[in-house]
Design goal:
homodimer, four-stranded antiparallel beta sheet, 17 strands, glutamate-5-semialdehyde dehydrogenase activity (chains A, B), 2 domains, Aldehyde Dehydrogenase, Chain A, domain 1, oxidoreductase (chains A, B), alpha/beta, Ald_DH_N (chains A, B), 466 residues, glutamate-5-semialdehyde dehydrogenase (chains A, B), NADP (chains A, B)
Chain lengths: 466, 466
């Protein structure tokens, strides 16, 4: 079954083709066109507020019934709500559209300019990736967030949301395409740029369409990301879960350790950037760990400790149920709740080795007053984020100043860490020649000049380059 | 069967683990260490010249026997020769090692620096990808070229060469690991950084090891690249074949058209950046095409023409066998020989549409005197290289001034076009804090400053950042 009730493969093929066609138009859309599109979207969402509220209410009603039967968690139910108790969530959503409009254009940036020869210039210019496939769960506002990021970066997008938000997603999608349909002809931002599919069956069909889709971003469980990677040739930006560690070095400052560990573990335990493992240098066991443990216990965090740390902490009169022996599995577990594994390491090198073996390459932190040690840690730990004396919870596109994020990547190609607009562009090489061929250059022929030019100056000289 | 004659899976797992271990050391190797490693490699290759010559001779002898039986082409046989008739190929190889040493370090570059708050700084610093898997054919000097690029960019590499060059590859690999073994302890460039596997069976096993291998670069046929993409979760940098077009616009200059088309088609027809399709605006048919066709015929190029161009060119007294009617298949064919498909298009938009539908997103060219048209072409054509009045054959890392290339990518993520050292690095975010947590910021709490800093100045202030 599909959105149109037609044959799955045919319909997804049509959807992918339409998105590809729209993406080719978007390649040449001006910043002004994209900005107008975002304005119209904000206006249309406001106009459609009541329709959106009704659609969202249908999802909420169906979800409440499932929640009452115990099929849906309270947290998931809350995330479905597009408006919030006071309507502030919807306001925030509209503000978000305007914020994306204010971000710098990630396309048309000249990142390399080189005079190859007289009358032969080479430019590397950023451009949209093409067609994105984004698969996400529950929160319906993601439809708007991702669509606006896609438009701003000149990409078409195929969205697949969770079925529990189907009515909200469809209403939001209708609102977005209405807004884009109102644009003047030839604006370069056609309504086909945003496609919505609604059933899981369509994912399998879409994953085969590598001819039309350039990048897949599955936002979901680790298993789902692996399923996607196993079933497609499309490059996957893996927004995998995070197993983040904090290492308390022998010279760690206790106050900083308390602040960083408590925030890392308790600020939002269900997030992928929450800390799961606490590594403690054996010389910091009796000096730093006790105060950290007391602060965590105060927040009701259960500590699962290896033998040395358990021995020490059991003398501190731990609250009932908040101290137990760790199993090896605990050091490979993303708890996502108020539980933390604690392990003693005999050396700095062992901490790094533990992290590089057990971690998920997401965000890893060292607490130390020794700058040399900190910088060695940041160099040797293989992760998207390496932190010195700061909570892993800071790993986030908004906090990094990107204005918005499409997700967090633990990939080691294309884009890593929180991914903002820059992760949605690639580049093309543009060559301005005057009839040159490769055969004119070589031994005893002409030589290439390879004179690196200033990209900004070139853009002033050749405004059509962008 | 494997290099060690042991169980395939176990051995490839050991190889991948060794490479991963080496890559973690390489993450922290200094520029001086990497430079010393490259020096030692050049020295060792020179020392081993006779051994290498003997190994290469064995491959050549075996290949000659296969060539005589018609199992191997002359071109492939020639590419096996590591020394060339006068030994100059070997000299070029040694020069290449020194050239890579001279290239700028692609790692440790600060590409974003932002003061998040007082005492809380964020940096995006380039770093190695990790472990590369590179699969290539015939030419044994690729072992050295890729290994030196990997070392310079701080990556470990697993190499799989063609079986016809097995002796040469093994001898070169031995020479490289001897050189790295001679480095002082703790240099950060361990001999395990370069791994060689020799059988096709091992590829399948390696493709499953996404836990250890970060990027696969298959250099070979389109089918082989698709096989790799279908059988791995590892990101693949597709060095696919190229179906490049040249479009003669109605305002094309005839002399430039002749130069660009003749070079694009005949400079090296077997290359992926050679031109395969010639699109001609109908208004340029009688004005520009005749001279272009005569020049191509002079180079013995067969033209496979659509009806209008065939009608016109048949009046020019074409040399026997060099003009025939095109089939639809001809416009989807990468000939890689002296054959070119010719199609008439009624408009500029049709040329773009033909290219975006039939092309392989490699390198596409417009010949025109109309700059506005040229820039619109370069914006709307979805390809790694978009050229105005220059031969597609210029699409090459050396010609672009990268100093070296690992291949050409038609991917639309990570790296596109000729890939030099920059395509072998990614980045990590480094945060320097003083105890901050995410919970300190927000409405009615502290605000982030997001003050963008100058990366170079920050690197001077904090040399340990790189």
């Amino acid at each position: 079954m599909t959105v149109n009730g037609a044959n799955g493969i045919d319909t997804t093929l049509e959807i992918a083709r339409a998105a590809r066609g729209a993406s080719l138009e978007l390649q040449a859309a001006s910043l002004e066109s994209k900005s107008l599109a975002l304005h119209r979207i904000a206006e249309q969402l406001l106009k459609d507020k009541e329709t959106l509220r009704q659609a969202n209410q249908r999802d909420l009603d169906e979800a409440r019934a499932r929640k009452d039967k115990g099929e849906l968690s309270e947290a998931l139910f809350k995330r479905l709500d597009l408006f919030g108790p006071d309507g502030s969530k919807f306001e925030t959503l509209l503000e978000g559209v305007k914020d994306v409009d204010k971000l710098a254009d990630p396309t048309g940036q000249v990142t390399y300019a080189c005079k190859l020869d007289d009358g032969l210039d080479l430019y590397r210019v950023t451009c949209p990736v093409g067609v994105l496939l984004i698969i996400f769960e529950s929160r319906p506002e993601v439809v708007v967030q991702i669509s606006t990021l896609a438009i701003k970066s000149g990409n078409a997008v195929i969205l697949k949301g969770g079925r529990e938000a189907a009515h909200s997603n469809a209403a939001l999608h209708a609102s977005l395409t209405t807004a884009l349909s109102s644009l003047p002809a030839g604006s370069g931002v056609p309504p086909q740029a945003i496609q919505l599919v609604s059933t899981r069956d369509e994912i399998a069909a879409l994953l085969k369409l590598d001819e039309y889709i350039d990048l897949a971003i599955p936002r979901g469980s680790n298993e789902f990301v692996r399923y996607v990677k196993d079933n497609t040739r499309i490059p996957v930006l893996g927004h995998a879960d995070g197993l983040c560690s904090i290492y308390l070095d022998e010279s760690a400052d206790t106050a900083k350790a308390v602040s960083v560990v408590v925030d890392g573990k308790t600020n939002y335990p269900a997030a992928c950037n929450a800390a799961e493992t606490l590594l403690v240098h054996e010389n910091a066991l009796s000096t730093v760990l006790p105060e950290v443990a007391r602060a965590l216990w105060e927040k009701r965090v259960q500590l699962r400790c290896d033998t040395p740390s358990h021995g020490l902490l059991s003398q501190l009169n731990p609250p009932s149920g908040l101290l137990r022996e760790a199993t090896p599995e605990d050091f490979r577990t993303e708890f996502l709740e108020l539980v933390m594994a604690v392990r003693t390491v005999p050396s700095f090198a062992d901490a790094i080795s533990h992290i590089n073996t057990h971690g998920s390459h997401h965000t890893e932190c060292i607490v130390t007053e020794n700058q040399k040690q900190a910088e060695e840690f940041m160099r040797k730990v293989d992760a998207a984020g390496v932190y010195w004396n700061a909570s892993t919870r800071l790993a986030d596109g908004f906090r990094y100043g990107f204005g918005a994020e499409i997700g967090v990547s633990t990939n080691k190609t294309h884009a890593r860490g929180p991914v903002g607009l820059e992760g949605l562009v690639i580049y093309k090489y543009k060559v301005y020649g005057s009839g040159q061929g490769a055969g004119m250059y070589g031994p005893s022929k002409k030589k290439f000049l390879h004179e690196v030019l200033d990209g900004r100056e070139e853009l002033q000289r050749r405004p059509g380059l962008a």
